[in-house]
Amino acid sequence: MELDSVNKEVLVDLEEKYLKVRKLLDAHSKLDPETEPYKSRYAAADLLKEMQIKLIQILDDNLTDHDRDIVTAMLAVIWLNMGIISVDTEELAAGDEQLTNCIDLLEDRELKPEAILIILSALNQLGILAAQRDQPKKSQSYLERAEKIYKDFSALKKTNTVQPILMATLFNLKDEDEVDAGEIIERLHTLTLYYLAQIYGTLKDHLKSAVYCHMTLKRQLNHEDLDCIDWALNAATLSQYFMEKGGFKQAKHHLAAASYILQKYEDELTNSQDTEEVVAAKWETFRHRSADIARCWAKYGILLLSTSKERLMHHAEDETSQMCSEISKMQLDPGSKVTEAVIENLRFEKIEKEIEMIASQLSDKYALDFNDARVIFLNAQQWLEEAKKYYTLENHASDHVQVIQDVSQLFKFLSFFEEDEDRQAKMHKRRIDILEKIVTELNPQYYQTVCRQLWIELGEIYCDILDIKLERLQASNERPSPHALTKINHLARSSIKYFQSFLDSLVDPATHNLPDRFSDDVVRPALFAYFLLGRLHYKIITPDKHAQLENLRNSVNAYKSLIDYCDKDPKAAELMKVELSVCKDFVSLLPLKIEKLSRELL
């Protein structure tokens, strides 16, 4: 840049030194030996200190207003680079001071073309640094200031058509990559929004964090500054937050966008000119992330069925509640300043038409009957089949089991909408088939947590089918056939087997006894297993009085185990309040039956 009141030789010296600094930081630092990882950065810092002294001297001269603005901006660039080097070399306190000096130097000059890129870079750096030092509020302050400065400059640009000046241009250097200054300011603002999304999340303002994640994704898409795989994965991950808040419309839009971007990337990959090894690695990443996004679609379907079920059950209890398929608006966090209008506008307008076909495959409305539920079920099931192609039992056992569990959940929620009891039982039987197949292939020693989940779920499924069969038996006036009784007893004993397997897995190998206190993650499942074991032993039907007596004693013992544990643990008693009350009733009644049966046998 032309500076009329500054010595030309001094300017040339500054230009040469800044060029060396950039080469040291951009190229040489990547080649530094492991024994001296910061060699190039320290060399650059020495040059920057020389330039700093020279620029301060120039500012003491009699300069024109224009030249003073430019030299001040040049000195701010020096402080910025020194701050970044200090942070990179783990001198955080020094980095904080240098970056703050950069900002202070540009006080009241932020919106000038020569200052805008420097101030935004410095504020972003300070925002990151404050977050690293566990100062989220301070980080928020820096980043929100950067956001405001960008907005003010954008408004100014519309009226004055002013363009930002590159830092290299201040030193009369041309950017070798020929990057447009307007593009740089947009990238800086995208980073500001990205960092703000993280900070709002740290500050527990999750809704605002989600909105800023969307804004970041939208800007990356609009400016075509995105890694397709990362973008698709982030959009799909964001959808999970929206749907958990009841925002199924927003969730579906983000999932459809993720799938569309993946499709585009697949086309690019098919025509890639990279080496065979590079392309193979990219295909592996593509298959992996495609499976992850397929699982996100499936989770959407599962949650939509689950929410529809809860709503129908609520309607059955409260008939005054309105019954329609429209999903209510997304829940807003009380403490967040995010408005409904902002939530409704969380869309990717640039690709809206392209993703419409993908989005139309799945509803974002409540399922009201079996036909509605079946469409959601089939779509989610198809996505899970896609996920299973990558997450195989041989290569990804834990993830494969989770996919299988999701399939089971789909059948579980679909069965709620099925009115025919036989078909309900068949759906539960389908769950048993897929879960038993997987649990027999897992080593409980290596996959203990997973096996425990499967044992509990299998115990519950057998219990659910048992309830269906017993309800039918009670509704019928006919005497049950031997086959029906055999079926009922088989279901009860199978359920008992799996709950007992779960409890056996909790036994301490050293003492061969159950622990006095269960860990927090298993206390409710363990106590609920006791509760159901008491109930299941009682449900077994047999004419053999000795067997009846044994079943009653087993039932009492299971109920007593729950009561005894809750007597020692008040938190557990509160957790199992309803079940504990039932157990106490049975423990007071069943001994009478046991005594009567014992007398009969005598």
Could you characterize what this model shows?
The chain has four domains: 1-203, Alpha Horseshoe (Serine Threonine Protein Phosphatase 5, Tetratricopeptide repeat); 232-419, no CATH class; 432-505; 508-602, no CATH class. The chain contains 23 helices and no strands. The chain has helices at residues 8-26, 39-59, 65-88, 92-105, 116-132, 136-160, 167-170, 181-202, 206-222, 228-244, 248-270, 276-317, 340-344, 352-359, 370-390, 397-417, 421-439, 448-475, 482-504, 523-539, 545-568, 570-575, 577-601. The longest helix has 42 residues, at 276-317. It is elongated. The mean pLDDT is 92.
CATH class of the largest domain: Mainly Alpha
* Percentage of β-strand residues: under 5%
Instruction: Specify the CATH architecture of the largest domain.
Output: Alpha Horseshoe
CATH topology of the largest domain: Serine Threonine Protein Phosphatase 5, Tetratricopeptide repeat
Class of secondary structure makeup: mainly alpha
Gyration radius, rounded? 33 Å
What is the average per-residue confidence, as pLDDT, rounded to a whole number?
92
Number of domains: 4
Helix percentage range: over 70%
Low-confidence stretches: none
The ordered string of helix (H) and strand (E) elements is: HHHHHHHHHHHHHHHHHHHHHHH
Number of strands: 0
* Number of helices, counting only DSSP H or I runs of 4 residues or more: 23
Distance between the termini: 111 Å
